[in-house]
Amino acid sequence: MNLILLSGGSGKRLWPLSNDVRSKQFIPIFEQTDGSRESMAQRVYRQIRKADADASVVIAAPKTQVSALRNQLGESIAVSVEPCRRDTFPAIALACAYLRDVKGVCEKEPTVICPVDSFVDDSYFETLKTLSRLAEEGTANLVLMGIQPAYPSEKYGYILPENAEPVSRVRTFREKPDRETAKSYIAQGALWNGGVFACRLGYVLGKVQEEISFSDYYDLFSKYETLPKISFDYAVVEKEPAVQVVRYAGQWKDLGTWNTLTEAMERPDIGNTVMDKSCSNTHIMNDLDIPVLAIGLSDVVVAASPQGILVSNKEQSSYMKPLVDSLEQPVMFAEKSWGSYRVLDAQPESLTVKVTLRQGHRMNYHSHQRRDEVWVVVSGTGRTVVDGMEQEIHAGDVIAIQAGCRHTVMAETDLVLMEVQLGRGIRADDKQKYPLEL
Amino acid sequence: MNLILLSGGSGKRLWPLSNDVRSKQFIPIFEQTDGSRESMAQRVYRQIRKADADASVVIAAPKTQVSALRNQLGESIAVSVEPCRRDTFPAIALACAYLRDVKGVCEKEPTVICPVDSFVDDSYFETLKTLSRLAEEGTANLVLMGIQPAYPSEKYGYILPENAEPVSRVRTFREKPDRETAKSYIAQGALWNGGVFACRLGYVLGKVQEEISFSDYYDLFSKYETLPKISFDYAVVEKEPAVQVVRYAGQWKDLGTWNTLTEAMERPDIGNTVMDKSCSNTHIMNDLDIPVLAIGLSDVVVAASPQGILVSNKEQSSYMKPLVDSLEQPVMFAEKSWGSYRVLDAQPESLTVKVTLRQGHRMNYHSHQRRDEVWVVVSGTGRTVVDGMEQEIHAGDVIAIQAGCRHTVMAETDLVLMEVQLGRGIRADDKQKYPLEL
């Protein structure tokens, strides 16, 4: 099976565990039997591998997510990187070109396209195989998954099939309705459109050629900015007369709000928490080191991270996006290709950051124009390069880096640094990268 | 008026804004018109000064509170420091000896004794003056304040007066009752015993001499540990046949729990907070830099500090003490005579601490046996002394201090340091102090 996983979204609705650089699918939320925690992306990827160990998977993602994807799914994961934000049609188009020109998949082969953050059981992946097989057979140009509605939701588009068979032609599509309209759709046998479909690779590539002339993946990548901001649904699905739908009645949840996400949590509390037995239907997700103590709460979600602290009634957490928008915060924590960082203290002319590098990884060789930095090695061993001078480092070592000075650090073991940034106008984009030759 | 203010308590019920070194009376909780914030101790002290600018005030406090008292009430505040924890009888005895032998107050003069953390209006201090005057007149050996009960509380002892006059003899005392018994006391005209009373200074000193022979304050200080752990109520008040009570019907609140404290807050939120209008009867106290976002909460208190995060139903917050005890935390923030510190990050073999020194202040000259330290100057100017070597410091300077090395820092302006402690077995008590001669 060829599979394109769409990885998008900023996840303001799961603040503060998501932020401008960590989308909701990367929040480690599912506790495993060994005590480790798995994100939505990791869960889906593990389920795919279980359903089809040989699946050829490519993830369509913005460049801000590449580090998190490699950290969470492994260095060898194939990522079709969107050079800028467009919509799902351009993202799928680029990923299809990637499959053909980088992975060598034949245009006649089918590919399945689905979100990376669905909360589903194993039967979902069996249904994906059915979609793939039907696309290969070619009775229709597009094969959609139609999800058996659990309730008259206003959040989804609806698919009206021609009949009630497991596989049927699509009669028509309907936009996100109001509740009453949704009820009437469901009475007519409508299914949710979850954005899951399959087609031959060449089908999508043909649609792209109708928009823009391109030779291969690399050419399309360079022209990406000129592609229209349009969803695959509008650009392709709703214009296509030959569409099949496959019914899916297994587990399918959109964990996009705290209310729905907490329903999927194995335990009511994650992290350093004490929840008194006087609490009911309450969930706590604590990513800070300090404890959260909860007493006498009902229907509440508490989420804490270096970004902030949310305390919300569960149902009303669905409406939090404008409130989060009003905060206008800098990014306080992030996963990087080399590890992670966390802002510990922010002052007008300084920033204190805890930097964690994973064994064998290194930062870019870089400099800053407008700030000095001091590194204090807290634990681990490694090597620094400062203006070409290489040095071994251990716990307790101090490295002073003047503005303009080129520097990097390589972790021989897992390495923790306290970085104190000093200067006027400290900005994340004050960074010049250089090649490093040792 | 001579006044002894009793400053005790650990304040577990106001965790996380109180901790093992910050008692509840030092939490800056009352917002002033200029935007600054005042603690309970500051509020009471300001009210005393307003009622009697010449009052001779001494504060009976454990040594852990001396820095906070001097920071909040001024360097010149008189503190009778309890060398170890006993109970109110020894604390009051020592403070009375302090008034006589350090402040030169005559034994015949009256003194008023009251808690430092009462939430009261100005009429309370007028009543204190009445207590003082009656003690001076000497009709009775002890004059108590009897507080008009607001409800049948189980938290207070009750005073039964002989009659309903504003000033009356006390018929008898009653221990903290259950609710039904409290109702019957109130029906009989009983008053709350708030631990506020007046007597001649010599009266208390005579009672102490009955327990232990001592010459003066300094002698009593050195014998403090041998004094019995007993409250003034048990040791003195309840044995005294000649007791008067003065009725007080003004504002009197014990802000010892989040439920009662939030009732006294001028605004529903303090610090970096966003409270959605869907919240009702909800209070937020945020001492962290990161924002707290509250949505759809009713009857909830949220309190956040470097010590932790409390989210509690207001009423049930009264029962939080055993839960806080179960946390067994190190102290994460503290006021010191020279400023304050805050733990930013704790690892098995390192501690990163933000140290803030106030202009003109300095740390003790000290060393640590089991840890190295690195200071990074974040802002301000000052001087360090490391093994006798003096050095000017500015933002960006780094001072490396090996274990065993004597060191201190003096702030010329307000000064902020990041201190990284490194070593096995980092402990607060690993500290040797030395005299500093420059």
Shape of chain A: globular
Number of helices of chain A: 10
Measured by residues with Cβ under 8 Å of the partner chain's Cβ, the largest interface is: A-B, 59 and 59 residues
Q: Give the helix/strand class of chain A.
A: alpha+beta
Major pleated sheet of chain A:
6 strands, antiparallel
Query: From the alpha-carbon coordinates, what is the Rg of chain A to the nearest angstrom?
Result: 24 Å
Biggest β-sheet: strands ordered side by side in the sheet of chain A: 20-21-22-29-24-27
Quaternary structure of the protein: homodimer
Detail the poorly predicted runs of chain A: none
Helix content of chain A: 10-25%
Strand content of chain A: 35-45%
Q: Based on DSSP secondary structure assignment, what is the total number of beta strands of chain A?
A: 30
Can you put this structure into words, describing what you see?
Two copies of one chain form a homodimer. Chain A has ten helices and 30 strands. With about 450 residues, chain A is α+β, with helices and mostly antiparallel strands. The first copy, chain A, has a six-stranded antiparallel beta sheet. Chain A has a five-stranded mixed β-barrel with strand order 8-11-9-10-12. A four-stranded mixed beta sheet of chain A has the order 14-16-18-19. In chain A, strand 20 and strand 21 form a beta hairpin. In chain A, helix 3 packs across helix 6. The longest helix of chain A is centred in the N-terminal third of the chain and has 16 residues, at about 120-135. Chains A and B meet through strand 17, strand 18, strand 19, strand 21 and strand 22 of A and strand 17, strand 18, strand 19, strand 21 and strand 22 of B.
